[in-house]
Design brief:
Blueprint: H1 3-17, H2 19-26, E1 29-32, E2 39-44, E3 47-52, H3 54-58, H4 62-77, H5 90-101, H6 135-148, H7 153-160, H8 176-199, H9 206-214, H10 225-232, E4 238-248, E5 256-263, E6 265-271, H11 278-293, E7 297-303, E8 307-313, H12 331-339, E9 346-351, E10 366-370, E11 383-386
Parallel strand pairs: 1-3, 6-7, 6-9, 9-10, 10-11
Antiparallel strand pairs: 2-3, 4-5, 7-8
Helix pairs in contact: 1-2, 2-8, 5-6
Length: 389
């Protein structure tokens, strides 16, 4: 049995014991590599992935293999990789994070080869650290101990520690927008897993329950899309009907009435020309995600000097890998809208505005959304707003 097959086997084991973490592990991208000494999680565009050293894996007993996998999942679920900037001493942060998450790994997963850091083991036991207090607490307590006892056991231990996971450095230097997008992708994955667990009458782990349940509350977008879409949506082309007994049918009093709800469809164009940088694209996709959350059906067209790609947006924060990166021309989208005017109620165009106004007259209400770094192009027809942060 190779390493991939063994990881799948332990995924199934977690599925039986802890369905939430089992599903999380099954859905992760995985890689075998000797560029790390043990195992770690790292960035994979806007996702995360698990990397395992095959030689290290072969040294572990069966119980510890499951514990190591859950350990890495907890680093993601507790957002340790995205919160590193709040901790100047990265190596100390790595130790504090391990002290936190190892408390949520059951003893049955800590076999003979388990050597994870524990608050009840030396050199940490003498500090009488309180259990399950969070990374910030353990970081502060360790930092204070080192400052007070620079020649003590904790300081000596930290000196002997290997550097932090090299691949965690993939999160260094990310902009706030990039971090926000990765965090939202993790949130989306946690919500999807929670939905599957609930459907199968499972439970959300206690350490994540409050956070995961909070994800199901509506988040505030940068722009008030409910208000903007209300202005630009006209008569809908798609009608949803649903029977309701809250009021009787006028024609057949003993039968339930039909509740008619218009379904909105918006054409969203994304300027993928070379003048639009990656941070701007992240801003655009953030807003599209929030727009989708209002209940609007969205068709996306990516366009530089011509339309490069067309697809239905499904509410998933995917890897930002747009087609185009050439010159800018708004005309192809206007022609597309004219040819498909029966399908859409409006057009929302995300751009940096660095292009002349199109010649074709918009056939539907249009809203130009300019990136935060750009200036509004007043020559463009229709309404214009700017993302402000």
């Amino acid at each position: 049995m190779n390493v991939y097959e063994e990881v799948v086997k332990h995924s199934k084991k977690l599925m039986f014991d802890e369905p939430f973490y089992g599903l999380m592990l099954i859905g992760m991208n995985k890689e075998l590599s000797e560029r790390i000494d043990t195992a770690c999680v790292t960035r994979d565009n806007i996702n995360t992935k698990l990397i395992v050293n095959p030689e290290f894996w072969a040294t572990l007993d069966e119980s510890t293999k499951t514990g190591v996998l859950k350990h890495e999942l907890l680093h993601i679920a507790f957002f340790h990789l995205l919160n590193m900037d709040s901790f100047p001493d990265r190596k100390l942060h790595n130790v504090a994070a391990d002290l936190e998450i190892n408390q949520y790994i059951e003893d049955k997963y800590k076999g003979e080869k388990w050597d994870g850091l524990e608050i009840h083991k030396e050199p940490f036991a003498k500090l009488n650290l309180e259990p399950k207090q969070g990374t910030k607490y353990y970081y502060s307590m360790l930092q204070e101990e080192i400052q007070n006892n620079p020649e003590g056991d904790i300081a000596e231990f930290m000196e002997s520690m290997d550097p932090m996971h090299e691949l965690w450095k993939a999160f260094d230097g990310l902009s706030d927008a990039e971090k926000k997008l990765i965090a939202k992708q993790i949130d989306h994955q946690l919500k999807e897993i929670a939905d599957q667990v609930n459907k199968n009458h499972g439970t959300i782990p206690g350490e994540l329950k409050d956070y995961v349940l909070g994800l199901f509350e509506m988040e505030e977008p940068v722009l008030d899309w409910k208000a903007y879409l209300r202005r630009f949506n006209g008569m809908s082309q798609k009608i949803l009907t649903k029977k309701t007994r809250r009021k009787p049918s006028r024609r057949y009093p003993s039968n339930p009435a039909l509740k008619i709800k218009p379904k909105k469809r918006t054409l969203v164009a994304i300027d993928t020309s070379g003048s639009v940088n990656n941070n701007e694209l992240i801003e655009f996709f953030n807003e599209i995600y929030h727009m989708y959350k209002t209940g609007t059906e969205i068709t996306v067209v990516e366009c530089d000097a011509q339309i490069q790609r067309e697809y239905e947006y499904k509410g998933v924060l995917e890897e930002i890998k747009v087609a185009g990166r050439g010159g800018t021309d708004f005309e192809p989208v206007m022609v597309y809208l004219k040819e498909h005017q029966h399908k859409f109620q409006n057009l929302i165009y995300f751009t940096d505005g660095e292009c002349n106004a199109p010649e074709t007259k918009p056939m539907k209400p249009i809203l130009w959304v300019h990136s935060s770094r750009s200036s509004i192009n007043e020559e463009l027809p229709g309404a214009k707003i700017k993302i402000t942060r």
